[in-house]
Amino acid sequence: MVVILDYSIGNLNSIKNILKRVGINALITNKVKDVLAAEKIILPGVGSFDHGISNLRDMPYFSALEEQVLVNKVPILGICLGAQLLAERSDEGVLSGLGWIKGEVKKFDSARMMEFNLKIPHMGWSEIEVKKTSALFSNMYEDPRFYFVHSYHWCCANSSNVLATALYGYEFTAGVEYNNIAGVQFHPEKSHKYGMKLLENFVKYF
After folding, report:
1. Which CATH number do you get for residue 69?
2. Is 155 a known active-site residue?
3. What's the domain count of the chain?
């Protein structure tokens, strides 16, 4: 069973609908029993870091989620804010993140953005560079590009956890992966064939 976590944040139905287009049924849920039965977990998210992590930790399924991911090694994919919540901390807030992948979330350097005459947030399509072999990008279309909307980005403590990068003024981490845990800063549900392929790969091969 593919589970999309409901913690009162994120465009859940958009993710469910894009999965349906590639023949995958997913369940949007906030129930403990569903999380414990999950074979794949998607952690979406739109909004601020502190609000997101507070909501997630307050959910009745949070202990079950930790058990599934950290003990049972059930694959999880964080999307946008959901990817950022995997980190230890964020410039956007004061609360600790999940810390499931070592690193932090930093705000785009506004001074450097001014040098390139770029605005924050980074909004629109950007090509990515895949940095390591991953099932998420198995048989991906050439020159993969995805849709971004964000003002903050990942900084991994260990470079081996950098899955993909993109350019916006400077190179930034656009995806992270460590064992059964992955996160992408972009929105696959808004990224047409590229996003559909990535989500299909996550469910079938990750």
Report:
1. 3.40.50.880
2. no
3. 1
